[in-house]
Amino acid sequence: MGQVIPMDFDTTVKLNLYESLARSGEAPTAMEVAAALSAPLGDVLAAFERLGQKRLLVLEPGDPARIRMAPPFSGVETPHRVFVKDKSYYANCIWDAFGIPAALHADALIETSDGHTGEAIRLRVEGGTPLPEPCVVHFAVPAAHWWQDIVYT
Amino acid sequence: MLLFRSEETLDGWCRARNLPRRPIINLDQLWHLAVTWYGNRLTVESRRPAPDEMVAIFAAIGLEGPFWDPKSDQWKGKLQD
To answer: What value of ipTM does the predicted structure carry?
Structure first.
């Protein structure tokens, strides 16, 4: 029998929303998490806020009940689409596009595009490694500034 | 960060925005970062790496210097340089 690790409420909320994302491809609202956990909405909203302060979530501006980012997953459509088995997800950036198969421990097809020309680029992760594809990833923003505007980064 | 088909299209992106070219990495390096950051994201133990851990993670794939240091103040007010 494995070790049982006691969870605080924020961790319970985080795991629930990630499980929901992995299952459906869509970020749950605070109302949906509250219903799933049979918890008061106010408690879930407070947990969302604390998870945001820890940079584990980015909430939708002006709507603290909705998730913009639960990295590596995006709560909104983006140019980075990730297909895993019979499901599809949106990633926040190309790093997170690789982050989804890394988090799900699964093979993936990633549909994205060249940042300048818009040329469609397909990347594949198979057997725990990316298949070779001619391309480069450019970091325009230094690490110390990534969270000043995480949507731009 | 953005993906480019080649260094030529990256240079075109920089020219179009009058922005300097900054570090690039390849897909193997990106995959290493993805696994390190997100490999346990759906587990109880998951958390963001601390700043010092981030520096070590980047250094492990050859990314060193103030650009990759989340505590560096070298870039304050210089992001258009």
So the answer is: 0.91
